[in-house]
Design a protein that fits this description.
The protein has about 70 residues and is mainly alpha-helical. The protein contains three helices and no strands. Helix content is about 80%, strand content about 0%. It has a domain of about 35 residues.
Length: about 70
């Protein structure tokens, strides 16, 4: 169904949306979408940083603490 929409159809749809909602409403909506994307990226970055921090803590805790004279016996 959507395969038949060409450039002319997209322009008609854009004009109809602009007439129905007005330029101010559309620009404020796009501003909110931009804020949402920014917040999402920030959340993903914070989560990634937290996971990396936890991984570093685990790797520090999991290091080999066997005394050096015991390692030679193995």
């Amino acid at each position: 169904m959507l395969n038949n929409i060409g450039p002319a159809g997209l322009i008609v749809i854009a004009v109809v949306v602009l007439v129905l909602f007005g330029r101010g409403k559309i620009s404020s909506l796009m501003g909110e979408v931009g804020k949402g994307i920014t917040a999402f990226k920030k959340g993903v970055k914070e989560n990634t940083d937290e996971i990396e921090k936890q991984t570093d803590e685990v790797s520090d805790a999991a290091r080999d603490v066997t005394p050096s004279d015991e390692k030679d016996k193995v």
